[in-house]
Amino acid sequence: MNQIFESILDPYYMQVLTLLGIYIIAALGLNLITGATGMFSFGHAAYFAVGAYGAAILTVNFGFPFYIALVAGGLMASLAAIIIGFPALRLTGDYLGIVTLGFGEIIRVVFLNMKITGGAIGLSGIAKETNLSIVIVLVMVTVYIMYALDNSRFGRALVAIREDDIAAESMGINVMTYKMKAFALGCFFAGIAGGLYSHLILYINPSDFGFAKSFEFLCFVVLGGLGSIPGVILGTTVLTLAPEFLRAVADYRMMIYGALMVFMMIIRPKGLLGDVNLHRIFFKKKYQKQANRSTAAGG
Amino acid sequence: MSALLELQDITIRFGGLTAVDEVNISIDSGTIRALIGPNGAGKSTIFNIVTGIYSPTSGKVLFNGEDITGTEPYMITQKGIARTFQNIRLFGKMTVLENVKIGQHCRTKSDFLSAVTGIINPVVKKEEKEIEENSLQALEIVELADKRYEYAQNLSYGEQRRLEIARGLATNPSLLLLDEPAAGMNPLEKQTLMKMIRKIQDMNLTIFLVEHDMKFVMNLSDRIAVLDYGRKIATGSPEEIQKDPDVIAAYLGKDVD
Question: Domain tally for chain B?
Fold first, then answer.
């Protein structure tokens, strides 16, 4: 399958598209945390890093097969999320944002000072395992999981917590547990994406996973539309591809990128697809059609 | 008839302020009980104690004979107490149907792993179907079934209040607490609401409500408790309450001489 892509795309675009897929997986994970459950996380890159380092160390130092290392990296990211979540998720809103930012930096600094991660020199010698077809499959699996969650008892509970946590608790939802689950699950996807990333770039360094990266993930989600799956995919695509296509204007690239973000937020303050809920539109149409038919039959 | 809910000597202090002072209330199963009193008398505080949002400084809450004082709010809902809020707390960006489905949360089980297998997992499918049916039933009671795919935030004020009731009903409670259900409704809407509450009572539910509209309270309740400055000053049937000198004094003020 990957041979087909290689024959029609040049390596540069292959790389960009693979990276885009990886970012979509991470952004969808963040969307579960910030978009669906309403918990602001400014430290998503840290869990991305846990997955990247975790999977890379397992394959390089311990000779694990790639797929097992990938899942293990995801689980390590979840574990980190659970440990951090215990104290952090008791906070809400801006306070939670600041705490997640702090923990994110702590994780990065830990990687910077550990021996096994290579410290500031970084980790190299990672085998190239990630390719476009694997990423496409994993993006599809992630999108499926996100849609399934969205329309399930679990996903509804998360949205209820975002909308009003006191009412959610009064309706019998154990708010703290559900926040933890959402956080761990969202970070799992960050970890998977991280594992894919390290086996694509082949060299990782703690400075790749700083605050800027966390902020980038948050931009993908907010700009696409908090809580909207197609929105997050579109937002990630626009913001990942824009800098690449803007290479033509060289020096003005990041300026135009910034202006683009400002402009998009002005015309669509809730995100590109912030108000679009395909599921609801579909069911409403179907219900109205039924209602019309029954009144027509009755009249 | 046995007491479904019993408040025994409930006191709660916030710093130096005693919001509720040694209140005893006992509600019989299947009745409609109203709690009235001037603003700031501690009515909503009592609701928050019953539903576990506040823990009382002293005293006990018994539900079905079981001590539920200080239990987590979500556990109390599982035990069968549902509530609505004075300042409507709906899930605005969820549809009407989804709001009610949240009420079914504590009666169902599936979690994220089963959600992912939802397409092929018959257990999850069946549960989801039950949730949908039960939720629609609750919506029928408050006559909102035809608005099921609207966003909750787009409903009118009166409709939002009714949706809160439906959401509470969907938790299959035996006791329903209504915090000012008629607030902001016009007389016609109040009439409809009264009929709905009667209908809910007929479904074998006990209702405990706080309301300022006296006509509404007097018409609907079996018994009324009156609070003033955190103390219970009277209990009785609507007729007794209307004649009670303490109640009249609390509402209209005392004569000087």
Answer: 2
